[in-house]
Amino acid sequence: GDKILLEELGGGSYLHNLTLNLKCQTSGFQFNTSILSWYLWDPGHAPRWLSSLDLTSAETNGGRIISSREDNSRQIFLQIKGLSLGDSGHYHCARRMGDGSDTDKLVFGPGTDVTVEP
């Protein structure tokens, strides 16, 4: 079968209080029926869930974190407003594999590094 591919783009250095914009390009699976998520994964810590997308846009943390999807281009997007130092880390997009139970498997992309500068 096709190889599942998730590729995060947009990492790098960002200034404090600016807006982070990441995207994740996907291929190799049925995009428009998939549940896709964003995680912040720092070495030595468990992955921290940021947002999940079913078929629509998702807003979390009072609108500071907004994720969206574009079915035509098979991409998902993550926007974080008002960046702080705690937003630094390794951002991954992930695809849920399974039927929605606790045993669902997550397939992670390789991730992209974000550093927030004071």
Task: Give structural notes.
Keywords: Adaptive immunity, Immunity, Immunoglobulin. Residues 1-93 form the Ig-like domain. This protein is mostly beta strands. It has a single domain (5-116), classed as Immunoglobulin-like (Sandwich). The protein contains no helices and eleven strands. It has strands at 5-9, 12-15, 20-27, 36-40, 48-53, 58-60, 65-70, 75-80, 89-97, 105-108, 112-117. Strands 2, 4, 5, 9, 10 and 11 form a six-stranded mixed β-sheet that branches. A hairpin with a 4-residue loop joins strand 6 and strand 7. The model has no long low-confidence stretch (mean pLDDT 89).
Superfamily at the CATH H level? Immunoglobulins
DSSP summary: helix tally: 0
Strand content: over 45%
How many angstroms separate the termini?
Answer: 46 Å
> In the CATH hierarchy, what is the architecture at level 2?
Sandwich
How many distinct beta strands?
11
Q: Taking all residues together, what is the mean pLDDT?
A: 89
How many domains? The number is 1
SSE-based structural type? mainly beta
Q: Oligomeric status of the shown chains?
A: single chain
By CATH reckoning, the class would read: Mainly Beta
Major pleated sheet: 6 strands, mixed
Weakly predicted, low-confidence segments: none
| Backbone CA Rg | 14 Å
Give the helix proportion (percent range).
under 10%
Kindly identify the CATH topology: Immunoglobulin-like
Write down the secondary-structure element order: EEEEEEEEEEE
The coarse silhouette is: globular
Features of this protein?
118 residues; mainly beta
In summary, what is this structure?
By secondary structure, the chain is mainly β.
